[in-house]
Amino acid sequence: MALLLLSLAAVQVSALIQTDIIYTMDDTYVNNSAGTTNYDGQSLKAGKTGSETLETWFRFDLSDPSGYYVVDAVLYTYVYSATNSKSYDLRNSSNVDWTETNLTWNNKPSYGGSVAQNTIGASGWFSWTITGTYSDFFSSGESYAAYALTETGAATAWVVIEDKEDSQSTGNVPYLNLTMMIPEVYLLSPADPYNTYDTSITFQYNTTDAGNIVNCSLIFDGAVNMTNSSVVENTTSIFTLSNIFPGDHNWTVKCYDSNRVVYEIEPAKRDITVLASIEWYNPSSATPLDIGNVVIGGADPSGSRQIYSNNTNNNVQLSCASGDCSVITTNWSTKDMASTDVETVYFNCSTDIGGSFQADFELTSDQDGTADTLTVNCSILAPDLRINSTNITFSDNTPTENQVVTITAGIYNDGTSTATDAVVRFYEGHYSTGPQIGSDHTINLSAGDSTTVQENWTAKVGEYDIYVVLDPPVDTNGSIVESNEANNYAYQTIDVSMWTIFVGNVTGWLALQTAQNQTVMKWNVSDTTDSLVYATDTDSNPDFSSLKAFSRNTTGSYMADDFTEFDNAVNSSSYPDSLNLTFTSGGNPIATGTFSVFGTTINNVPLINSTNSSTFVTGILWDSSDDSNSNNQFDNTSKEDVIFVTRVNQSKQGMYGFYDYELKVASRLKNYKTPDVLTVTFYTEIK
C-alpha cells in the first residue's frame, strides 16, 4: 500500500472548551527589610515604602487541568488599597519549590522578566494575562506555576491586596481563571461505515490543540500504517492509502500531544469495506448461454463466456449448482484473479444422450460470496421411438382357437430427429424367451410423427402377452441411439378362451318312407323346443342309448376326478378356464340338471350357463358303451366318448341375439381323439 501525506485548507472544527477557577494554593509577600520574616496569613503587599521593597508571591496547582491544553490564563487580584498610581509587573519564576509558610525575602527564588503589567492607583479588581508562561509551566509537566508581583521603578508606592485567607474581609480572594480545551482528533472522511470498490482511499482528519501535537498516525486494521509529524491545528490533514486489499477494514487516527505529559488522542474506529466482485463479462449480465443443437453421437458442442474481476478476487470458483450437471460441464479450475483481469471459461455439452439440457453455474470468490449465476443450455437431437401398451390393439379381443388375429401397433417418435430403418418386431410372450410372430418390419419415422405396423397371429388357447419391440435387441439398446431407450417395448395381453360358443336355430322335417325311400307322409316340425343339440369329437361314435351324466359312474355315484381326467386328456389343466375350473367349485359341480336323451332320463348332469344368462345351459355326458376296462366310470384309459349337450329354447334372447340354442364346447374337444384333431361333430335330437 502506498503512502501520501498532505495538509489541506483550514477547516474549523469544534472542540470541547472548559473554564476552571483555580484559587491560589499559596500566597504571601516578602520584605527586604525583614529578610527572614514570613508574612503568611496577612494581606498581600507589593511596592516600595521608602526603605522597604515589598513583593507578593503566588503559586498555583497545575494538577486540575491535566489532559487539557490552556487556551487562556488570567490571574485576578483584588486591590484593597493603593497609595499612588504606579505600574506593577507580574513576573514568572522557574523555582516553584516553596510554600506560603516558609517564603521570606532571603529565600525567595529568582524570577524572570515581566509577563503582565498593570497601573494601579485605586482599589478594585485587576487582571493579569499569563497564558504564555502558564502554558509553559503546564506543558513542561510542572506541578506548580509561580509568579511574583513587583513595583516598576524606584518611586514610593505600594498596594494592599486581599489574600486567600481574606484578611481584609472583602471576600475577594485571588484566583486564576483558566480556559482550556481538550485536544481532539476529528475523523472527517470516509464516513462510517463506508463501502467502496476503490482500493485507494484518502483518509481526512482534523486536530484541535494549542500547537502541542507531536505527530498523528493512521491506524489501519489496528496497526500504525503511516505517521505525519507536521500537523497543523484546525487544518484538514490526510493520509492516502493505496492497494488496499478487498475486505472489511477499520481505521482511525491517533495523535500524540506533548501537553504536560505525552497525551495520546485516538477517536473511535471507523469501518470501511473495500468491495470486490467477480462477475460475468461481455455481456456483463449473466444472460443464458445457448451452446447449440447437435445430433446425438456427434461432436460435443461448446461455448464460452468471460469472467471479469473487479478488484482482487481469490479462489474464484465456478460450480454447477443445479440442473444437468453431468451433461453440461466446464473446464474452469479455481484460481486467483487480479483487479481488472478477464478470463474465458468454456462449457461443453455431452452428446452421449439426447434431449434438452440446462445447468446453472454459480460464480463466487473469497471476496465476493454472492453467487452470480449463469444458465447454460444445449440440445442434443435424437429420435425417441415409443410404444405403449395402450397402442397395441387386436382385431378381436376374444378370439377362438386358431382364429387369425391382426395385431396393430401404434409407434411414435417423440424425439427431435428422424429414426431411420427402425426395426419393429412382434413376439408371442416375452421378447427374450417367446417366439417371434411373423417377420421384421422396417420403418422411417420423422421427429414428432407416428405410424402403425400390423402383424397376424393365429390364436392359441390360453393367456398370451403379445410384445412389440422397437429397435431390437432391447438389452443392448439396438442400433439407433435414442434420447430414451426405456420406452422401446410394451405388451398387451390377449386371452384365448378354451371354449367355443355355438349358436343357431333348429328346424326340421319328419318323413314316413318306404323301404324304397318313397315318402308316404311328411310332417313339418315348427316347434323344436326341448330338442337337444350335441357336440362331440369327430373321431367319437356315441351310443346315445348309453349316455351317462359326466362325473357319475354307471350306478350314479359322484366321481369328482372326471373333470381333471378330461383336462389331462386334452392338455387343458393349466388353463384358467379348464373344464374342472369352469364346471366345479369346491370339488362339486356348480349346478346339475336333467336331460331326456332319446327317451332316457339322465339326472345329475353337470351344468353351466352357456353364456351370460341361464336362458341357455350346457351339460356334459359320457358314453358308457366305451368302458373298455369295465370299471363302470369315465377315465383316461378307456377314453369314453364325451358329449356336450344343450336344450333348444326356441327364439330366445341370448348373448349374441335371438336364436334357439347356445352351446359351450371345449375347444380342445377336437383333440380328444385322433386322427382328426381339427373338428367336432354336431348331432341334434328333434322333439
- Our count of helices gives 3
Look at the helices and sheets and give the structural class. mainly beta
Number of E-type strands: 53
Distance between the termini: 125 Å
Query: Which oligomeric form is depicted?
Result: single chain
Rg over alpha carbons: 64 Å
What does this structure look like?
- This protein has five domains: 3-11 and 184-271, Immunoglobulin-like (Sandwich), CATH 2.60.40; 17-181, Jelly Rolls; 277-381, Immunoglobulins (Immunoglobulin-like); 385-496, Sandwich (Immunoglobulin-like); 503-685, no CATH class.
- The chain is built from three helices and 53 strands.
- Strands 2, 3, 4, 5, 6, 7, 8, 9, 10, 11 and 12 form an eleven-stranded antiparallel beta sheet that branches.
- It is rod-shaped.
- The model is unreliable at 1-14 (pLDDT under 50).
